Structures are given as structure tokens and as C-alpha cells.
Amino acid sequence: MIIINSVSEMQRWSQEQKAAGKTIAFVPTMGFLHAGHHSLLVEGRNRGDLLVLSIFVNPAQFGVGEDLDVYPRDLCADTQLAAEAGVNVIFAPTVASMYPRGYTTWVDVEGITDILCGASRPGHFRGVTTVVSKLFNIIQPDVALFGCKDFQQLAVIRRMVLDLNMLVEIIGMPIVREADGLALSSRNSYLSPEERRQALSLSASLALARRLAAEGLRDSAAIIARVRDLISMNPATRIDYLQICHQFSLQVQAQIDADSVLLLAVFIGKTRLIDNSLLLG
Length: 281
Ligand code: PAF
Known about the structure:
Blueprint: E1 2-4, H1 7-19, E2 24-29, H2 35-47, E3 50-55, H3 75-84, E4 89-91, H4 95-98, H5 117-120, H6 124-139, E5 143-147, H7 151-163, E6 169-173, H8 193-214, H9 220-232, E7 237-246, E8 260-268, E9 271-278
Parallel strand pairs: 1-4, 2-3, 2-5, 3-4, 5-6
Antiparallel strand pairs: 7-8, 8-9
Helix pairs in contact: 6-7, 8-9
The structure holds pantoate (PAF).
């Protein structure tokens, strides 16, 4: 495994591999890798001749007052996990090389970026789509893997790839959870033990919604009301949004069907966590 920090060196490596007829699978991350990332790497290993992992805490997708400065980083542990997962290249560029002086170009997917996380975090998805486009241009992957925990991000990236005719296959991978249900996230490291206990209300509320759906309840507002009550029993929580949407269009649904997904974002103390689940799938 090699670590490449330079954009031009990464481009050269990818060009050489493509010229030799190799396929490249790519897992973009912001580092502080956990078992969710590991599952992407394991699948990526099967999907291409070569596996590239990027580690880049992308300032463009953080808003003012968000956690850019304290975002957890551990390149040493990440390197070990990547080596064990069979990564060929870690691409870890600097901010200055990705956004050099005079940088002015942005990729903006409209519509589905204004809702849900996009409404709470203006500019977030513009930062994501810009950096992912740049990474795709640099690495030239045949396939790229993203976690379904960031459900809206996956939908936005699929839209971008379709709209901009990018020659990369996008794979969405299932959410990986702790044994007690907490969805894995690098931001879980911010939680105190008590906050972590209260954060379990997120996965518990998704399980409740799935049970209500299985019992025949179809009214989204009624399901959301029950979910809201369950989460709000925990004093450290503050709900950012709870929405039931169509899994592909992300249109809000008043009645649920086989394509309904419950998406939620909840602050636990100062930590904002997201989670989601299909309701009938
Ligand atoms: O999901 C993430 O970790 C980031 O949003 C991504 C896709 C690596 C872009 O910075």
C-alpha cells in the first residue's frame, strides 16, 4: 500500500493503471475510519482490480460554526485499517492542493439539495459534490462506494453522476450498526456515555416506525408523531428533522408505500446525528 499526498502524483498513478487495463474501485472518506468504512473497502476490494481510499476532511462541506476544526482524525489507525482491508493507495491530499489560491469552481446539484440536510446545512452538498467531482477527476474510478447512512448524499451523488455523464458506477452500501443499534459514524466519538445512551433513541425510533408500518399504519404524520414522542423522551435530544420521503425522488410522502424511507437528523447535545430506514422494504 502506498500513500499519495500530491494531486498530480495521484493522477499519474491512475493514468498508468488505466493504461495497463486495470479497473479502479474508490472509497471516498474523511478518515477516522470505522466498521462502516471497512464494509465499503471490503466490497470495493471485490469490485475493482485496484482499491483507492481517499482521506480528506473537506472544508467546503462544513458550514460556519460546524465541527471542521475538531473533526476527529487518526491517520495512523486509518492506515492500519486500510492496509488490512487490502487498499492499494491512500490518497490524502492537503487542503491547499485541492483548493489552491484562486479556486472558484463549484458543482451544484439543484432541488434535492435544498431539503432535509441541505435545508439545515446550506452549502453542504455543494461542498460534497464539488469535492467528489474533483476526486473522481483525479482518481478516474470505475466504481465508487458510499454508505447509505448518508442517504441524501448518495441520492445527490447519483443525480450528479447521471446529469454530468460521469463514467463511474455508484454503489450504496447498507448502514453498519453497533450491536445495540447505533449507526456507526465518526461523530459518535463526540458523545458522552449518557449522550450515547440517548442516541439509541434514533435506531429505536426507526424500529418503532417499521413496526407501525408492518402493522398496517400508512399515515406518515401519525408515524412521525410516534417517532417524535419516542425521541423527545430523551432530554439531550433536539430534533432537526423527521421526514418520510420516496427513496429515489426524496419527495415527501403523506402516505407510506414500499418506497418510503424515514430520514432523521437529531442533535444529541451538540452532536448532530443522522439515520434512516426503509419502512416496508
Ligand atoms: O461521506 C463523507 O465522508 C464525505 O461527505 C465525502 C463523500 C467523503 C466527501 O467529502
